[in-house]
Amino acid sequence: MRSPVRWFLVMAVLLAAGTAPARAATSILEPGEDTDLAALGWEWPVQQFRLVRGFVAPAHAYGPGHRGIDLSPASARVLAPADGIVAFAGSVAGRGIVTIDHGSGLVTTLEPVTPVVTAGTLVRRGDEVAALAAGGHAEAGAVHFGVRRHGDYINPQLLLGGVPRAVLLPCC
Fold it and tell me: Among candidates 134, 126, 130, 144, which has minimal Cα distance to 52?
């Protein structure tokens, strides 16, 4: 059982990091587990993108929130963020979805997409798994990138080390 002091410290860390307290977010901070998820070497599932909508943890398992991040990419290619096995590639409620099981309880979902892989395919980080499609709840032209750890949604940016640094380009 968690002590009230430990719970308070976990919530304080989550709030300071900009993550609302939720059951999903606290599961990554259990004793004995690797809490430096960014060290796993995941990559962004799209290249040259704009972060359209960030992760918003729900107050409880069925509460409102945004259980992933939406990215507006410069190209239609959608890549595997880490090594894994495609658990699902197909259509759900009229939109294409690719789900990758990365092991250790980590599962990625990418949507709306047109899969270029099939269930059971072994993928490596950076392999193309789909092309961006229309539909779903993400802004038009954006891909939704969700990650679950042991069944609970977590902020994908925990695995990526945050948002890449902006690079100013010369104009004119």
Answer: 144
With tokens 């939704």, the residue in question is 144
pTM metric for this prediction: 0.72
Burial label for 95, CB within 10 Å (0-12, 13-18, 19+), is middle
CA distances from 149 to 101, 103, 135 (A): 10, 10, 25
Report whether 88 contacts 107 (CB < 8 A). no
pLDDT at 41: 86
What are the Cα distances from residue 127, in Å, to 46, 121, 143? 11, 11, 16
Distance between CA 74 and CA 88 in Å, rounded? 25
For 12-65, write each residue's pLDDT tens digit: 444 344 433 333 333 333 333 445 777 888 999 998 888 888 888 888 888 887
In whole angstroms, how far apart are CA 141 and each of 110, 137, 144, 145, 147?
13, 11, 10, 13, 20
CATH number of 4-160: 2.70.70.10
* Tokens (6 digits) for 151: 């069944």
Question: What does the pLDDT look like over 144-156, one tens digit per residue?
Answer: 999 999 999 999 9
Task: Please answer whether residues 89 and 119 qualify as being in contact, where contact means their C-beta atoms are separated by less than 8 angstroms.
Answer: yes
